[in-house]
Specification:
Strand content: 35-45%
Number of helices: 4
Radius of gyration: 40 Å
Helix content: under 10%
Distance between the termini: 98 Å
Structural class: mainly beta
Shape: extended
Number of strands: 53
Largest sheet: 8 strands, antiparallel
């Protein structure tokens, strides 16, 4: 007779240690009086492949025979609450074949696992496709078995269908961007692309514009088709890649849809405001003529480096405005407005452009002065996007954009997005377009004081590259000194401009005519080649320098300077200035080498005064001792974006800088201002000095110092 005592955890673990075969041969052959049968598996603990257990209309469709899984449980007896129980799983699957006969497969998991374990069965690979297949499972604890799992009260098992066919490839259509048409739509213009497939089980479409991220869209109607909206950002051929996905996870072959994006639509209205002095109205490149108040005078200066030759000056009074007396943009739809502006003062809020909407403006673009410091601002639909810092007397390009597709308002200043894109509900009230003022309840207000030019209005999105192009100012060459010749103490500027005046201790070095060749004569003492070209400026470090009589660059605006320099000493003992330009008491900028810190520094003075605050950026460099090809150094002051950058042999260091001022002194080569007057004389060589108004790009900076002209539009 058996004992009737049920085996606990230690007994089962012992049996498992002896071998699974022992457990399987006689798992708890003794029947315990207190044994409880395993729990019936519940649908929430069952999975058909990667999908949940379901039946009927909710049954999953799968691409292949799945692995089914179940969590099986055995209750803990009251007299053994701390012990676990072990179970095995018994699976079965069934279906009706094409002849109406039931087919059934069964499987038992090997061994016993603790209660709560997941057990699985990889179903046979030869299961029929397009047939409803059911499966169920029960738990066996060696003495009792649970009830079979069920999805519902009727006892239905989990069901699935194997789908062995990929969906048909989709078709793609677009009214705005038809396939293989030269050229259609346009930059900044949204288009609808419609995807459809003949297959009736498509659940979504995956798409990508080649080179971009993939997206997924679900059908939005009973025909199984789906639509997306897309806005191109460049004039170019575009390929759209689309495939359909069905409910089983299968996907179709790819459809490649080729279309060709045209340039964006030109402005719906544009006024250069470069009309002749004395004009009473502004001619329009597009849209209606804008009538000018008597506070508007034409013939003002334009921003350098742009096609804009002149602008309109508004006096800030009630008569300083222009208007076409007509609506220009539909504020409830996508639009963008912008123009070149130079505020004469920033004592009050000022409007560049706006459009009436009853007794209020539908939008405003301009400068706001109510905060800690002035900011550019675009207001629409009760919200404002603000950023960037207007400065009196400084040109800027401001552009406001409302994208009705996204509902977002954006602001660009000098080609860069500033502030945070903000959701807005635009007014649909129509009114007259205004330049230089905004509508208020008591009449017009926030009048502009200063210059405005090239005002444009678009009925589409102006994309970031276009915003940057509108704000682009091509740098202008202001001087190039190759330092290969000298006559009467002057080294000429390459284009006949102001020469460099050489002081005592400064001379033009050339390779001696009797220089020997060390390769041919072992006893030869070799002479150094000039840094660039046939000569360079040699400085003795004891007072030698070169200078122009007047400023080379406007240090209060954007500028770039480049040069090649050698340090004569392997271990210099004091700071030495390479280039500087300043006023009566201090330097607006200087580039110097500081041996104590083993670095070149760009020092920007905040005022023409001794002891004025300074902003310093630095690049590490070991002294070259007069050997090698020299350091290629460049200084870039980007006033439009309030940054300074120092480049040394391609290494860059930059910082924010807003305190630029216009220096009155000439360009200094080899010396700078100190507390005791002129000093920090350079012991070394300088060559190929180039100066530009405007901030050169990193690409153009890399071209400096090699004897040629850089690409100013790169």
């Amino acid at each position: 007779m058996t004992s009737g005592i049920r085996r606990g955890r230690a007994g089962w673990l012992g049996a498992l240690a002896v071998g699974v075969a022992v457990v399987m041969a006689a798992p708890n052959t003794a029947v315990a009086a207190d044994n409880l049968p395993p729990l019936q598996p519940v649908a929430a603990d069952l999975e058909t492949g990667p999908k949940a257990c379901a039946a009927g209309e909710d049954r999953p469709y799968l691409a292949t025979s799945p692995q089914v899984r179940a969590v099986l449980r055995d209750p803990v007896e009251d007299d053994r609450p701390s012990e676990g129980d072990f179970v095995t799983g018994e699976f079965e699957a069934w279906w009706t074949d094409g002849d109406g006969a039931e087919q059934r497969r069964t499987y038992s998991t090997p061994g016993f696992l603790p209660s709560g374990s997941t057990m699985s069965w990889r179903l046979p690979s030869d299961l029929p496709a397009w047939t409803v297949i059911s499966w169920r499972v029960r738990a066996n604890d060696g003495q009792d078995v649970s009830a079979w799992s069920a999805v519902d009260a009727d006892g239905a098992g989990c069901e699935f269908v194997i789908d062995d066919a990929n969906p048909e490839k989709p078709t793609v259509t677009s009214a705005e961007y038809p396939e293989d048409v030269f050229w259609s739509g346009g930059v900044g213009e949204y288009g609808t692309f419609r995807f459809s497939s003949p297959s009736d089980d498509v659940v979504d479409y995956t798409y990508s514009f080649l080179g971009g991220q993939r997206g997924t869209v679900k059908p939005d109607g009973p025909d199984g088709a789906a639509e997306i909206r897309f806005m191109p950002t460049s004039r170019a051929p575009v390929t759209l890649d689309v495939y359909a996905n069905d409910r089983s996870g299968r996907r179709s072959s790819s459809t490649l849809y080729h279309f060709y994006v045209a340039a964006g639509r030109t402005p719906v209205a544009q006024w250069a405001l470069s009309d002749a002095a004395g004009s009473k109205s502004a001619a329009a490149t597009a849209g209606p003529v804008a009538h000018a108040g008597v506070g508007v005078s034409f013939g003002g200066p334009g921003p350098s480096g742009t096609p804009l030759t002149s602008t309109a000056t508004l006096d800030g009074t009630g008569h300083g405005f222009l208007t076409p007396a007509a609506q220009v943009v539909e504020t409830g739809k996508t639009f963008a407005v912008g123009g070149w502006v130079r505020p004469a003062a920033l004592s009050h809020d000022m409007t560049v452009v706006s459009q009436d909407a009853g007794t209020a403006p539908g939008f405003t673009l301009g400068a706001r002065t109510g905060g800690a410091e002035p900011v550019w601002s675009f207001g629409i639909g009760g919200v404002r996007v603000s950023g960037g810092r207007p400065e009196a007397g400084e040109w800027a390009y401001a552009l406001g954009l409302y994208d009705a597709e996204t509902g977002l308002a954006r602001l660009y200043v000098n080609g860069v997005e500033v502030g945070t894109a903000t959701e807005a509900a635009a007014s649909t009230v129509a009114g007259d377009f205004q330049i230089g003022r905004a509508r208020g309840k008591a009449g017009y207000r926030d009048r502009w004081q200063g210059e405005i030019g090239d005002v444009r209005a678009y009925d589409r999105v102006v994309v970031p590259d276009e915003a940057a192009e509108l704000a682009h100012r091509t740098p202008q060459a202001r001087g190039r000194w190759s330092l290969e010749a000298e006559a009467d103490g002057l080294s000429p500027e390459a284009n006949g401009g102001e020469p460099l005046r050489l002081a005592a201790g400064a001379s033009i070095y050339h390779l001696p005519a009797d220089a020997c060749d060390p390769a041919a004569d072992p006893d030869c003492a070799p002479a150094s080649d000039p840094l660039v070209g046939a000569g360079h400026l040699a400085l003795d470090g004891a007072g030698g320098h070169a200078v122009t009589d007047s400023p080379v660059v406007d240090t209060g605006d954007s500028f770039t300077l480049g040069a090649v320099v050698h340090l004569a000493d392997r271990e210099p003992t004091r700071p030495m200035t390479v280039l500087s330009q300043g006023g009566e008491h201090g330097d607006a900028f200087k580039v110097r080498y500081v041996p104590e810190k083993l670095r070149f520094e760009l020092v920007m003075g905040h005022a023409d005064a001794q002891g004025a605050d300074e902003t310093v950026v630095a690049v590490q460099a070991l002294p070259d001792g007069g050997s090698g090809r020299g350091y290629r150094i460049a200084v870039v002051h980007d006033a439009a974006h309030d940054r300074i950058t120092l480049y040394v042999d391609g290494q860059a260091s930059d910082a924010a800088f807003r305190a630029g001022w216009t220096s009155t002194g000439g360009l200094q080569v080899g010396r700078g201002r100190t507390a005791d007057g002129w000093g920090e004389y350079l012991h070394g060589s300088v060559d190929e000095i180039q100066a530009f108004s405007g901030a050169l790009s990193e690409t153009a900076v890399a071209q400096l110092g090699f004897g040629g002209d850089p690409c100013l539009d790169c």
